[in-house]
Structure formats: structure tokens, C-alpha cells
Write a structure and sequence with these properties.
alpha+beta; Immunoglobulin-like; eight-stranded antiparallel sheet; globular; phosphoprotein; transmembrane; SMP_LBD; metal-binding
Length: about 1100
């Protein structure tokens, strides 16, 4: 019989399928049975349809063969055809699997009750009321509400994707800067809430809900990347996860709930069915690109620690605290080892079984850490420590996944998960955890660190951290949470244009950035930033407000974190005035510091700071005067393993090319050049080069030195600016990883400047490792004098490391009260101050400091022990020459203070800095040069003493160092010591005037000598150089360097005229000539740079200068 179009098929038991199936798999004609009464009708239309279907099928197969024919026609290999076929089959397989999973999910969603009843062998009726799950309640009434508001939620999602997600995607990849959403439809399948679990909140004013959500929908979203004329789409999506909803604060007025916070505790599971051109991304190995990108955008918006806050009442208090609350605590994860891992490496096509190259991924929410790879080991030992912030307990989980490192795809070895609530209850959890999905166990030590709102126990925490060996990062003593609220009256850009301000917050080498707020000088950010602090007493928060192009700085702020230690509850909530900005430019921020304290009876503090493994069970000091219980007095210091491991990084800023022109004249009509200079920032120190006027290809040739450690993650920040009268213009920036330089030892590269159209910078970086031997000191001093540039400070020859451990028997205040001592260590212009120990005559500082030493023979370490409010308690002066004759250049013992009462225990060690890439081969001997011949003679003391590899000989030389020469010079007028050298890399002739000895005294008083140099045949001021003048001496020391820019062939044609002169009288311009030296540069080996003594000759002409 025939059916009308509006009539459905009549149900019967024979027509019911035995399993759920998608009715779209077969056409409707396949389900309809032929009508027996229709046999008399002509079959023409049916036969025509079958013929058309056959022709269509034949045509499709013919189209498949066309690529094979074309490949043969052009003479391509059959491999191209096979590769295309494999590509198509891989895409088809992934596409079919996604469609099959979507069909099954839709069928389950449409007929959930019927399928559940069939699974439980029940008839078609509802489940009884007594069927439930523990702690999780069904919420069908809530699903009905969601289904009704679903279309309106689609309108909100369209706005959310366009205004929030799209900018996040554009910022995640420079190739997606034109990414936009062109169509957003959530479809007819609403999100379902599988179950609801209610937790008891930490406070009475708080309600916690966990919603287990599942979305299998027919969503359709189209996107476009205009830059590449690429259109893509999403048709069908699955999203499964646990959404936590927090209702707080509860108030005594309608609507009862002040605000609603929502976030995912863990990353939700996402499966997307791509359409359009993005079907190419369904090929295995490529689909994860887009999925990961979108998941990163979702995580940046709704996965802890990020959350969505919806205020329900106006003027809600502590909105910043609700939007970004303080963490519940910190978990210190010690990833120690693993054992019994499965072997994944195979050799000779699987015939030989190898081991594995394991590494571990540690996750908590969005915080992820990766350990190092242990090669060829089934029982690896990592011994690494990580610190993670915990925001929600219960809910968040620590996840550890172990993989085998391979060149192509890493093999999975197993995972473990642990709820953070177990760590909170245990305090310290040290155990072997089995790996799921594989074999073996992983050894973790988990420590719960509480957050303290006062600094009372900070010293105790710092003392403990010094005795803990931690890698890759040292342990933290505190955390800092910065709530960046808003800015006010920021300066405008050129042309009175509104800026697009963003903020960079930095603590040492960690920098975080806020979002950019466009076209306003009163931006509102409402963002939170979190930092780990190793030593809050010495660290600083650096805040830079910039335009979104990073080229224009709108203001800056440097805040010592020690200010928070004295603030109530370690909190500052106020306006902060910006420097280098407008007069009323300021930021409103709330800074909250919390001390990390391990409160566990299983952990005690080491007796001797810096000695890991030594434990103090009683933590009680013995009674004063008890010789039985008192520990023995140490003879030597016990520094930690990091002491003395510093390096010196020598940064040589050479030149730049193709800088952009920033200067404008006549209102911008005339384009000028730039006045560039370079700013360097590394390890908390900043350096700045001199300004080169009107040059787009400047040459600075300056050298800077900084003490660095091997802590990973450090970077050298370089910025180039154009010097202006009002505000310096940005010319570009670049960064260099410090790890790269420390590993290679030397780096000489042209670095491309970023954030500007053009420009590059030439840098030369060298790592100098201190050597505990004085054998090469003379060579180092000679090389430093040769490569010294005029614009740079004197180069360091050594590194002094001082470990200040303790003091004893310090004088008491007013004879009875113990002082509160601290110590200052000074070398030259550099001073280090220790912390103050309250009320004790035997303080334990346990601090170290490092100093750059430029003149090891003459400099000294000055130590001063002072009491807080009581003045000086004792002094110590340690000449560095004593270290040069000590074993391993190190002194480690008790030193008596000059006051006669009190001693200090310290370790001072010197390391010589030998450059391996100076381009200079220094000579180890000095020569005396007369007018006719050169004769070798030992060094006569007028300058610093020379050292040799023998310590006794060095000690003898140091003790015989006097101000007068040991033997008479060869010439009657005295001698002058010069180094003449041609620096080929800089194309400069260099002359160093070291000093003179045994000069002639014509009158009653000694002369006031100086040295004048003239490069002949030119006698103008352009080639004349002159040293400073020394008062009343026959043996002056100058150690001054002079340069002339000229090619080598021209230098060989010149003659150097050296005159030693003295002032005749105070009121006269006449100069007395004490002697001259005439050097023909063609007769000198300019490539060696040898320091020589030259005999002074008489000259009848006593000209004036």
C-alpha cells in the first residue's frame, strides 16, 4: 500500500533495529518494502534511477583514475600516486572515526533513557527513584532550563568568541593576526549536565558546586584568516569536563549571592570535527595543531588559575580577591626517581631489546614541568624539584606522566594521579606511586607549604632553603601576587594620540605581561600576576608601562620587596607614582606577599647553615658557659655547593647597522638620523653605552662585565634607543640566552633587532671562568691593558668570592647587652651588607658575595662589623696580595678583628680570569730597549710586580716590592716603559704608557712629570696625546692608554715621538724636557704588544707644550 508524504512508517517489532543506529546511514527507500499492489505500474522511472546511480558510480571511479593517468602522462614516479593515496586513506579513516563517534554520542543523547533501560534489561519505563550515584545528584530540571535558554546563550557565546577568544588566538601565533569568527551557531543540541556535586565551602559565605558537563552538539562555527585567504569551519564538537561554580559572597540582601565564579579545575576534553579547508588538519600528526591552539585559548580564559567572575550586585567589595584569590597553598614536588620501567627501545627491527630514555612531565592545572632525559636507564634518578600553586582543594590533581624519548614520537610509559587534598592532610608525603597504563613506579616527595601573612619566620625559612640542594631552580621563600587594577593619566603618544598601554612586571629573570587596553590613557586591566621569590629581602619588582608596540615606554616603577615585609599583613593596596612619565601618571595595584612555611614535625632545620644532611633534633641552644653540651668550634667554613661557582660574562658591544632614523627637523619635514645608545640588563644589573651622535651605523666598542651564575632561564636583554632631549625613542631590542653563552664559552654574532623594521647589533660575549692559580696573572694584566677600550672601565683580572659565615666574642653594648651585628664587605666602590642578627655576640650570617678585581696587587678586602645603633664593633683589612701567595689562592680560617675583641670566620678565594678569545698573544717577559740594542733584564719594580708559577718566588717578589728601582737604569736620564701595539680588529695603533723610573732631578725638588706622545710626521693636535701629571716623583706610574685610528701600512710609515716633561714653575707655561725617545714603528713588531723599557735621550730643544 502507498503512504502519504506526511505519514510515518508504522512501527512493528520486525522493524525495530537490534542496536542503535543512525537513520542517516541508509536512504529512506532502503527501509520501505515494495507494495504488492503496485506491480501493474510501469517500472520506467525506477529503472532510470538505477541507471543514473550506476553512471554516477562509474564516473566517480573514473575520476579517481585521472590522477594516475596524469602522473603517467607527465612521467612521474608511482611513488607520488602511492603517497597521495596514503594521504587520502589516512584522512578518510580519521574522518570516519570522528563521524562514527559523533553519531554514537548523538544517538545516546537522543535516546539515553531507552538505551539505559535496554542495557539494564528493563522495559521502556523510567528508572526508579532509588537509583543514584554517591555524592553526585542528577539535575534533569536544570537540563530543561539549559535547553530553553540555549538560543540566548548562543548570542552570548558569539559575543564571547569575538571579543575574548579571537584576540587570544590572534596573540598566540603571529600567523593568525587576522583570525576572525564569521559565523557562530550553537545548534539545537544543548549542553547537558550529567551530575552535580556540592562541596562544603571553606567559609560560611561560600557555596561550591561541581558540574559534570557534557556537550555533544551540532555547533557550526566558521572562521577566516584574511591574511592567507583561508576559510575554515567547525561542524560538530564534543566537550567534557568538570566545571566548578563558586557562589560567594552570600549577603543578607537580594539576590543573596554577590557574585558567581566559574572555571574548569582541569583542562576539559575537546574533540572537534573540522570542515572546509581545515580537513587537511585531520591528517594524523596535524590535527593536534589547531586543537592545541584552541585549548590554549580556553585554558587562558577558564582553566585554573584563570576564572570567569560575574558580579551580581553593584559596588561589590574585594572584586580583585574574588577574580584572582590567593592560592590555598604551595606544593613542593620532589621528582626523585623511578624504577621498573618498561623498555621501549628496539634494535635490528625488534630482534634486540634495548632500554628506555625516560623523562617525566609533571602537571597541576596549567602548570607543567618537564624533567631532563636519562639515557638508557629503566631506573632513572632525576632529583629535581618543582613548585606549584594550589588553588582548589579538593579538586585539583597532581599528574605525572613518564615517556621514553625518541627521535620521532615519544613512547608512553605510564602515569599517576594524586589529589592535592591528600598532600594537605599529610603535610609531607614521601612514597613510591605505581604507574597506570604501564609498569613501574615513580618516587615523589610532596611537601605542603602554608602561606603565612607575617614575616616572623622568614629568616628561619631562608636559613632552611640555604641548606637545601634544589634544581633546576633554588627553593622559594615566598610568593608575590600582584593585582594590577588600573592606570591614570598616562602620557600620550606623539601627536596627542591615545596610547594602547600594557604592563610588563619583572622580578629578576621572570617577566609577565598584561593585556593591552586600546586607545586610552586611563586603562583598566583587572589582572593578577604571581611570582615565586627566593629572597624577598633583596629582590625588586620592576614595572614597565609601555605601548602595545613595546617601542614607547609610558612609565616605570621599581619597588623593593622589602617594603612589604614591614607592611600590615605583608600587603600594599595603594596608588603608585610612575617615574619617567607624566606628573600625575600612576598605577593602582594591590601587592600581597605570603611566606612559604613547611609546618611538619618530620622536618627540622640543619644545625650548621649550608650543610645539607645535618639535622638539629632538639633545636635548642646549649646553656651559655656549658663546655659539655657546646658543639666544637669549627676551624673552617662550610659554604654550600654553589659557592665559588660564579662566572664573569664579558660583553663587548661593537657596532650596529641599518638603524632606523628617528630625528625629525622643521616639524618633521626634514628627516635626520639617530643618536643611538645601548642598554643592557642581566642578573639584576643594568649597563648603558655612550651615545654616538648622528649615525645609523654606530660603533661603540665598549666592554661591560657582570658576575653571573649557572641558573637556567636567564637572558641578556639588549635595547637600543635614540637619545633625545625629552624622551628617548626606541630603536629595537633583542635577547640572548645566558645558557647558550655559558655552554659554548664564546659568542660572536650579529643579532637582528626585534619590533623595528630594520637594524642589527654586533655583540661579542665571552664566559670567563675563574682559575685558582696566579701563574697567568701577569699575562692577564698585559692582555687587559692591550684590549682595553677608551670608553670602557678597566677590565677585571680576577674574581673574589667571599663567604661570611659567623663571628664570635663581639663586644657587648654598655658592657652587658649583646649587640645586633651586621657586616659590610667592601672592595673598591662595591659594598655588600649582610643581614642583621638580633641581640647576639656570636652571629651566624651564612652569606656570600662576589667582587670584580682589577688590580689584585693593590686592592684589599675591607670588612667592618657594626651593631645596629651601636657603631663599629671591629674592622679587618685583608690585602689581596696575601691571597696571591696562598695555596689555591684561598684563605679559610678565623680572622681577629682590629679592635682586639672578636673574631670572624670567613673564606676568601681568588680566581684569575683568563680570556681565551682576546685575539692577543701576551708575552711573558719584558725587555729593555736602548738607542742601539735590546737587552733582556728582570722586571724592576716601578709598577706592579710580575708573578711566576712558583709560589715561593712570587712571595719573594711581593716582599721586595719597593718604590725605587733595585738597580740603576742603563741611561743617565732615566727610562720610560711603553707598550706599542697594532689592534688589527679595531684598525687602531695603541700605545700604553706604563711609567718612568730614575728620572733626572735638576733642581732641589723632584719634578712633576708627564709624558707627551706625538705621531710624526704630523705635528698637529689630532695626533698628540698626553698623560696626566704626577707630583714630585722620579718614578711615576701612569698606566694610561692612547689610540690612533689608521691602517697598518700607514702606521708602519710613522714615527712615535715620546717626551717626558715637567712643569718649570706654577706661573709659567714653560715645560722642562726630562728626556725623549724616538721610535720608528717600522722597526717594532706591532703584532706582539710587548711592554719594554726605553732609555731616555737628551734633546737640546726644550720646547713648551
Amino acid at each position: 500500500m502507498e503512504r502519504s508524504p506526511g505519514e510515518g512508517p508504522s512501527p512493528s517489532p520486525m522493524d525495530q533495529p537490534s542496536a542503535p543506529s543512525d537513520p542517516t546511514d541508509q536512504p529512506p527507500a532502503a527501509h520501505a518494502k515494495p507494495d504488492p499492489g503496485s506491480g501493474g505500474q510501469p517500472a520506467g522511472p525506477g529503472a532510470a534511477g538505477e541507471a543514473l546511480a550506476m553512471l554516477t558510480s562509474f564516473g566517480r571511479r573514473l575520476l579517481v583514475l585521472i590522477p594516475v593517468y596524469l602522473a603517467g602522462a607527465v612521467g612521474l614516479s608511482v611513488g607520488f600516486v602511492l603517497f597521495g593515496l596514503a594521504l587520502y586513506l589516512g584522512w578518510r579513516r580519521v574522518r570516519d572515526e570522528k563521524e562514527r563517534s559523533l553519531r554514537a554520542a548523538r544517538q545516546l543523547l537522543d535516546d539515553e533513557e531507552q538505551l539505559t533501560a535496554k542495557t539494564l534489561y528493563m522495559s521502556h519505563r523510567e528508572l526508579p527513584a532509588w537509583v543514584s550515584f554517591p555524592d553526585v545528584e542528577k539535575a534533569e530540571w536544570l537540563n530543561k532550563i539549559v535547553a530553553q535558554v540555549w538560543p540566548f546563550l548562543g548570542q552570548y557565546m558569539e559575543k564571547l568568541l569575538a571579543e575574548t577568544v579571537a584576540p587570544a588566538v590572534r596573540g598566540s601565533n603571529p600567523h593568525l593576526q587576522t583570525f576572525t569568527f564569521t559565523r557562530v551557531e550553537l545548534g539545537e543540541k544543548p549542553l547537558r549536565i550529567i551530575g552535580v556535586k556540592v562541596h562544603r565551602g571553606r567559609r560560611k559565605e561560600q557555596i561550591l558546586l561541581d558540574l559534570n558537563i557534557s556537550y555533544v552538539g551540532d555547533v557550526q562555527i566558521d572562521v577566516e584568516v584574511k591574511k592567507y585567504f583561508c576559510k575554515a569551519g567547525v561542524k560538530g564538537m564534543q566537550l567534557h569536563g568538570v566545571l566548578r561554580v563558586i557562589l560567594e559572597p552570600l549577603i543578607g540582601d537580594l539576590p543573596i549571592v554577590g557574585a558567581v565564579s566559574m572555571f574548569f579545575i582541569r583542562r576539559p576534553t575537546l574533540d572537534i570535527n573540522w570542515t572546509g579547508m581545515t580537513n587537511l588538519l585531520d591528517i594524523p600528526g596535524l590535527s593536534s595543531l589547531s586543537d592545541t591552539m584552541i585549548m590554549d585559548s580556553i585554558a587562558a580564559f577558564l582553566v585554573l588559575p584563570n576564572r570567569l567572575l560575574v558580579p551580581l550586585v553593584p559596588n561589590l567589595q574585594d572584586v580583585a580577591q574574588l577574580r584572582s584569590p590567593l592560592p590555598r597553598g604551595i606544593i613542593r614536588i620532589h621528582l626523585l626517581a623511578a624504577r621498573g620501567l618498561s623498555s621501549k627501545d628496539k634494535y635490528v627491527k625488534g630482534l634486540i631489546e634495548g632500554k628506555s630514555d625516560p623523562y617525566a612531565l609533571v602537571r597541576l592545572g596549567t602548570q607543567t614541568f618537564c624533567s631532563r632525559v636519562i639515557d638508557e636507564e629503566l631506573n632513572p634518578q632525576w632529583r629535581e624539584t618543582y613548585e606549584v600553586m594550589v588553588h582548589e582543594v579538593p579538586g585539583q590533581e597532581i599528574e605525572v606522566e613518564v615517556f621514553d624519548k625518541d627521535p620521532d614520537k615519544d613512547d608512553f610509559l605510564g602515569r599517576m594521579k594524586l589529589d592535592v587534598g591528600k598532600v594537605l592532610h599529610a603535610g609531607v608525603l614521601d612514597d613510591w606511586f605505581p604507574l597506570q597504563g604501564g609498569q613501574g613506579q615513580v618516587h615523589l616527595r610532596l611537601e605542603w607549604l602554608s602561606l603565612l601573612s607575617d614575616a616572623e619566620k622568614l629568616e628561619q625559612v631562608l636559613q632552611w632553603n640555604r641548606g637545601v640542594s634544589s634544581r633546576p631552580e633554588p627553593p622559594s621563600a615566598a610568593i608575590l601576587v600582584v593585582y594590577l587594577d588600573r592606570g591614570q593619566d598616562l602620557p600620550l603618544k606623539k601627536g596627542n594620540k591615545e596610547p594602547n598601554p600594557m604592563v610588563q612586571l619583572s622580578i629578576q629573570d621572570v617577566t609577565q605581561e598584561s593585556k593591552a587596553v586600546y586607545s586610552t590613557n586611563c586603562p583598566v586591566w583587572e589582572e593578577a600576576f604571581r611570582f615565586f621569590l627566593q629572597d624577598p629581602q633583596s629582590q625588586e619588582l620592576d614595572v614597565q608601562v609601555k605601548d602595545d608596540s613595546r617601542a614607547l615606554t609610558l612609565g616605570a616603577l621599581t619597588l623593593p620587596l622589602a617594603r612589604l615585609l614591614t607592611a600590615p599583613e605583608l600587603t600594599l593596596d595603594q596608588w603608585f607614582q610612575l617615574s619617567s612619565s607624566g606628573p600625575n601618571s600612576r598605577l593602582y595595584m594591590k601587592l600581597v606577599m605570603r611566606i612559604l612555611y613547611l609546618d611538619s614535625s618530620e622536618v627540622s632545620f640543619p644545625t650548621v647553615p649550608g650543610s645539607p644532611g645535618a639535622w638539629d633534633e632538639d633545636n635548642e641552644s646549649p646553656q651559655r658557659g656549658s663546655s659539655v653540651d657546646a658543639p666544637p668550634r669549627p676551624c673552617h667554613t662550610t659554604p654550600d655547593s654553589h659557592f665559588g661557582t660564579e662566572h664573569v660574562l664579558r660583553i663587548h658591544v661593537l657596532e650596529a647597522q641599518d638603524l632606523i632614523a628617528k630625528d625629525r627637523f622643521l616639524g618633521g619635514l626634514v628627516k635626520g638620523k639617530s643618536d643611538p645608545y645601548v642598554k643592557l640588563k642581566l642578573a639584576g644589573r643594568s649597563f648603558r653605552s655612550h651615545v654616538v651622535r648622528e649615525d645609523l651605523n654606530p660603533r661603540w666598542n665598549e666592554v661591560f662585565e657582570v658576575i653571573v651564575t649557572s641558573i637556567p632561564g636567564q637572558e641578556l636583554d639588549i635595547e637600543v634607543f635614540d637619545k633625545d632631549l625629552d624622551k628617548d625613542d626606541f630603536l629595537g631590542r633583542c635577547k640572548v640566552s645566558l645558557t647558550t653563552v655559558l655552554n659554548s664559552g664564546f659568542l660572536d654574532e650579529w643579532l637582528t633587532l626585534e619590533d623595528v623594521p630594520s637594524g642589527r647589533l654586533h655583540l661579542r660575549l665571552e664566559r670567563l671562568t675563574p682559575r685558582p692559580t696566579a701563574a697567568e696573572l701577569e699575562e692577564v694584566l698585559q692582555v687587559n691593558s692591550l684590549i682595553q677600550t677608551q670608553k670602557s672601565a678597566e677590565l677585571a683580572a680576577a674574581l673574589l668570592s667571599v663567604y661570611m659565615e659567623r663571628a664570635e666574642d663581639l663586644p657587648l653594648r654598655k658592657g652587658t647587652k649583646p649587640p645586633s651585628p651586621y657586616a659590610t664587605l667592601t672592595v673598591g666602590d662595591t659594598t655588600h651588607k649582610t643581614k642583621t642578627i638580633s641581640q647576639t655576640s656570636a652571629p651566624v650570617w651564612d652569606e656570600s658575595a662576589s667582587f670584580l678585581i682589577r688590580k689584585p696587587y693593590t686592592e684589599s678586602l675591607e670588612l667592618q662589623v657594626r651593631g645596629e645603633g651601636t657603631g663599629t664593633l671591629g674592622l679587618l683589612s685583608l690585602p689581596l696580595s696575601e691571597l696571591l701567595v696562598a695555596d689555591q689562592l684561598c684563605l679559610d680560617h678565623w680572622f681577629t678583628l682590629s679592635s682586639g675583641q672578636g673574631q670572624v670566620l670567613l673564606r676568601a678565594q681568588l680566581g684569575i680570569l683568563v680570556s681565551q678569545h682576546s685575539g692577543v698573544e701576551a708575552q711573558s717577559h719584558s725587555y729593555s730597549h736602548s738607542s742601539s740594542s735590546l737587552s733582556e733584564e728582570p722586571e724592576l719594580s716601578g709598577g706592579p710586580p710580575h708573578i711566576t708559577s712558583s709560589a715561593p718566588e712570587l712571595r719573594q717578589r711581593l716582599t721586595t716590592h719597593v718604590d725605587s728601582p733595585l738597580e740603576a737604569p742603563a741611561g743617565p736620564l732615566g727610562q720610560v716603559k711603553l707598550t706599542v701595539w697594532y689592534y688589527s680588529e679595531e684598525r687602531k695603533l695603541v700605545s700604553i704608557v706604563h711609567g718612568c723610573r730614575a728620572l733626572r732631578q735638576n733642581g732641589r725638588d723632584p719634578p712633576d712629570p708627564y709624558v707627551s706622545l706625538l705621531l710624526l710626521p704630523d705635528k698637529n693636535r689630532g695626533t698628540k696625546r698626553k698623560t696626566s701629571q704626577k707630583k714630585r716623583t722620579l718614578n711615576p706610574e701612569f698606566n694610561e692608554r692612547f689610540e690612533w685610528e689608521l691602517p697598518l701600512d700607514e702606521a708602519l710609515r710613522r714615527k712615535l715621538d715620546v717626551s717626558v716633561k715637567s712643569n718649570s714653575s706654577f706661573m709659567s707655561r714653560e715645560r722642562e724636557l726630562l728626556g725623549k725617545v724616538h721610535l720608528d714603528l717600522a722597526e717594532i713588531d706591532l703584532s706582539q704588544g710587548v711592554a719594554q723599557w726605553y732609555d731616555l735621550m737628551d734633546d737640546k730643544d726644550k720646547g713648551s707644550s
